[in-house]
Write a structure and sequence with these properties.
The protein is mainly beta. The chain folds into 3 domains: 2-129, Sandwich (Immunoglobulin-like), CATH 2.60.40.10; 136-235, Immunoglobulin-like (Sandwich); 254-323, no CATH class. 9% of the residues lie in helices and 37% in strands. It has 3 helices and 21 strands. Strands 2, 3, 5, 6 and 7 form a 5-stranded antiparallel beta sheet that branches. Strands 1, 4, 8 and 9 form a 4-stranded mixed beta sheet that branches. The protein has a 4-stranded mixed beta sheet with strand order 12-13-10-16, with no helix packed on it. It is elongated and about 90 Å long. The termini are far apart.
């Protein structure tokens, strides 16, 4: 009987050694700083759980749970990984498991490391890479439009037209119009309440109404205006809206001639000179350009031209670009 027990013990020891060699000692310690999430109200240590999921555990489960035993807001867990993973890239993410709102995964990209033989301790990382507490505030922001040029040139009629402020803080839509200042009728003013992250950059533009009376449906041309939201009440400097009228119809159609010199033209994508220009296209926001068709072009050496007849308006926008088609064969006079 004793000999049988010795044999069984030897077999158990052998199996144990085999298990160690198959799932060897490659402990990896994960560390995640949750202080920002706690201060932002996004992680409740009393009810929420922090786990790590990745390519090593099938991106699922709560078995690899991180804990904060010393109360320093840094949660840790040590996971023993197999020898077969040594030298390979391991991908992972931290996940907040909440009993009320479900799982909250970190955003892309995945975190990663290469497993070393014998394991390793990963550096402390902030959940979702957020290193600062997001603080929001509400404050009044006052916008001012210097309408002197638009009024002097007759582009803007206070009796029928209006101008508004639209931006990232109101979804780029607004039903409230700016009002003339009591002491300066050429200065239009608008104050609105803005709720946003403190320190964030807010973008905005003027827009004129009725939109069909102005170019680009009343949108201001050029880059967006910007201001930094501090959380305190703010009055911005007066700006002249970069808005033009759409123009008035003439009594007859007009013919407009466009020309462009393509000598030395370069490809916008690779910045290299064009080797063989087969056509130059003209596009615009009116028929026959744009949706209604294309103007016909002629080529002669390095200059291209086109003539088109269109319903007359005082102000239009056009865009030229290179393309693979040849539209006509009448050379431009030189």
């Amino acid at each position: 009987m004793r000999r049988q027990w010795l044999i069984v013990g030897a077999l158990f020891a052998a199996l144990s050694l085999m298990g160690v060699s198959t799932y060897a000692q490659n402990p990896v310690t994960f560390q995640c700083n949750m202080s920002v999430q706690m201060l932002s109200g996004m992680f409740d240590p009393g009810t929420d759980t922090l786990v790590v999921r990745g390519s090593f555990n099938g991106w699922a489960g709560n078995q690899d749970r991180l804990t904060d035993d010393d109360g320093d807001s840094i949660y840790t867990v040590t996971v023993n990984l197999a020898d077969s993973l040594v030298g390979k890239t391991i991908y992972y993410k931290y996940v907040i498991v909440s009993p009320t709102s479900g799982d909250r995964w970190e955003g892309d990209p995945n975190r990663e490391f290469v497993l070393q033989s014998g394991g390793q301790v990963l550096p402390v990382e902030y959940f979702d890479r957020q290193t600062t507490v997001v603080v929001t505030a509400t404050a009044n922001v006052t916008f001012q439009a210097d309408m002197s040029d638009m009024l002097t040139n007759g582009y803007f009629d206070p009796a029928t037209d209006s101008i508004r402020v639209v931006g990232s803080f109101n979804g780029w839509a607004n039903t409230e119009s700016m009002q003339p200042d009591l002491f300066d009728p050429s200065l239009y003013v608008y104050t609105t309440s803005v709720t946003a992250e403190v320190g964030s950059t807010q973008e905005w533009k003027f827009r004129a109404y009725p939109t069909n009376k102005f170019v680009d449906n009343g949108w201001e041309s050029g880059s967006n205006h910007q201001f930094e939201f501090t959380g305190d009440d703010l009055t911005l400097e007066p700006l002249k809206p970069n808005i033009l009228p759409a123009g008035h119809p003439l009594s007859q159609d007009v013919t407009v001639r466009f020309s462009v010199n393509v000598r030395g033209a370069t490809d916008w994508f690779n910045k290299q000179p064009f080797q063989d220009i087969k056509s130059v296209w003209l596009n615009g926001d009116f028929v026959p350009l744009g949706q209604g068709g294309w103007g016909s072009w002629a080529v002669a050496d390095t200059s291209w031209c086109a003539c088109t007849t269109t319903a007359p308006t005082a102000t239009r926008r056009q865009t030229t670009r290179s393309g693979p088609r040849k539209w006509c064969s009448t050379p431009e006079p030189t």
